[in-house]
């Protein structure tokens, strides 16, 4: 589905919506009610955008890290299913150069699960299961689907692990919301 064809009716067949980093946020802002409705139906929104408009429920706007790229390190919980088997080096370096993965952060909503953070404790990726009846995975300009896809490093795992996580999350959220 193309972005400009998005309506709540057209979103109905989908369990998840993946929003890439370079997206027309003004359009999403105009359709923020449809996105909120989609989430209230127990669906999933995965956003890699550096939000400058409040279209995603519960999200703060993107904040540029005050740390220099060379001083900033991205950290993940080794056991998190999104980052299992991905080394810290491969999160932070691509072909020997540091800083491609994330240059900013979010202030995570209350009760959000922090999946990725930087060495100053700022949230880079969070999972929010409380703001809506659905699930929001928001990365501060981090593209878990495509980062490392063309490399042979451990970062290549993130895309496949993200898709598997979406499938598990949707089945959990959907079956839980039906019972409620």
From TrEMBL:
It comes from the Bacteria. One of its GO terms (molecular function) is transaminase activity. Keywords: Aminotransferase, Transferase. This is Aspartate/tyrosine/aromatic aminotransferase. The keyword Transferase applies.
